[in-house]
Each structure stands twice: as C-alpha cells, then as structure tokens.
Amino acid sequence: MPLERVPALPAPWTIVVPFKGGPAAKSRLSQACGETKGLRPEGRHQLALAFLRDTVTAVRAADNAGDILIVSSDPVLITAIPDATVLADPGRGLNAAVTAGIEWARSLAPDGPVAALTGDLPCLRPLDLSAALELAREHPLGVVPDRHGTGTTLITAQPGVPVTPRFGPHSCEAHTRAGHAALPVLATSTLRQDVDTIADLAWALRRGVGQHTRAAVPQPSSRATRGRRLSVPTAAAV
C-alpha cells in the first residue's frame, strides 16, 4: 500500500518592521488635539518604542509569522528588544528602509513570502495579523489600509515578486496602483489601528493597547506628569 504524501506546510512569513526612532519619532504626536496637548520629543520617542515593542510581541505570537527583521538605526533597540534582529537603516527615508529590509529578508529566505508591517500598532492582536497573512497568500502582492482607508499598515509579497514600497501620503491608493491587491480585512481589525496622531492614540487607548504602551502613557494624576505636556487623550478630545 503506497504511503500517503503529507502536504507541505506553507512557508512562514518573514516580517520586516521599519522603526524611525530618535527625537523625530512620531512627530505628528506633537500636535495638540482639542484640549489635549501634544507630546515633547522624549515622550514621542518613548511611545514610539512602546508601540514597536507591542507590535513585535503580537507578531511573535502569530502562528504564520516567522523571522522578524527590524530596520532601524536607533541604539535604544539593543536594550529595549535585546533579542531582535536589526538591520541598520540606510537613512534615505521610510521606503528605502522597507526596501532594504525586504531585500535582506529575501536573502535569508528566498523561497518564503515577505511582509512589511508598520511598527505603530499597539492594539495589534496576533489573530488579526495571522488572518491577513493567510488572505495574502492568494495574491502576488497585497496591502492592508489603516482605519482611515488612506494609509497603509501592511504590504505583502510572494517569493520572487518585485515589490516597490510606496509608504507616504495616500499610500494605500499608491500601493493598489502599483499592483497590490487590497486584502479584505475587516475595518475593525486591530491590524488597521496605527497611531500617528493624538486622536489616533485616544482611539487606540479606548480599544485596548499592549502592556508596553499602557506603561508608557503616564496617568495625569501621577507625580511624574506634573508640569509636563505629556497627557492621556480623552474621548472628548477626539
């Protein structure tokens, strides 16, 4: 009796996560929203790093994600995420960083799919990421928009498929024009909840963020926040 062939498991996704870091991180969080003041550089950097740590935590728990490659030149990552694989940012902007990460990922796993994920997803749940990555297996190139429908939180590419990242203003449209299929990810998915502004942060806090972001947002009544501009946005401020 011939032995039955066991189907091979799909190759895991290599996930590229760019991280700007430094004093310029998340500059739009410096802008006030209603009565809620914006954040100073040190507060923005602290939050950006917390967003990244929560994002990476979720990726590690996704059952179809493999290696995680962070593209950054922020020295804080060495201690903040000591077991991370970090590639130096080439310093030519976000798209150049993503391109460098994808090229590096493909040199390590040429037969596996690759995805580029923004590092500002403090609400991200592993199941939401896993579901999107499974949908992406059906397309040579894929894209997931942010909750506003204009930005991008995830792009995907199958092995050997050329990809040119187009992050920036109206990036979701730019990616679809470049051949990325818009993946049918629910509007409520935590994969679409990136944080760029104080209003985004307020929304994320109401949905529920990871432990690193919770710890990085000081409470208004705490002694550490007295006399500082760093404050928790409220629903009324959105």
Report on the structure:
The chain has 238 residues and is of the alpha/beta class. 31% of the residues lie in helices and 14% in strands. The protein contains seven helices and seven strands. Strands 3-2-1-4-6-5-7 form a seven-stranded mixed beta sheet, sandwiched between helices. Strand 5 (141-145) and strand 6 (152-157) form a beta hairpin. The longest helix is centred in the N-terminal third of the chain and has 21 residues, at 41-61. The model is unreliable at 221-238 (pLDDT under 50).
How do the helices and strands line up, and which of them pair or pack?
Layout (H helix, E strand, L loop, with lengths): L12 E6 L22 H21 L3 E7 L5 H4 L4 E3 L6 H15 L5 E4 L8 H11 L4 E5 L6 E6 L13 H7 L3 E2 L15 H10 L3 H6 L22
GO molecular function: GTP binding; phospholactate guanylyltransferase activity
Protein name: Phosphoenolpyruvate guanylyltransferase
Family: Belongs to the CofC family.
CATH topology: Spore Coat Polysaccharide Biosynthesis Protein SpsA, Chain A
Percent in helix: 25-40%
User: What is the number of strand segments?
Assistant: 7
By DSSP (H or I, 4+ residues per run), the number of helices equals 7
Query: What is the overall shape?
Result: globular
Following the backbone from N to C, one meets helices and strands in this order, namely EHEHEHEHEEHEHH
Uncertain spans, ≥5 residues at pLDDT below 50? Answer: 221-238
* Helix-and-strand structural type: alpha/beta
Give the CATH superfamily: Spore Coat Polysaccharide Biosynthesis Protein SpsA, Chain A
- Name of the CATH architecture: Alpha-Beta Complex
Radius of gyration: 18 Å
Protein name: Phosphoenolpyruvate guanylyltransferase
EC number: 2.7.7.105
Binding site for phosphoenolpyruvate: 152, 168, 171
Catalytic activity: phosphoenolpyruvate + GTP + H(+) = enolpyruvoyl-2-diphospho-5'-guanosine + diphosphate
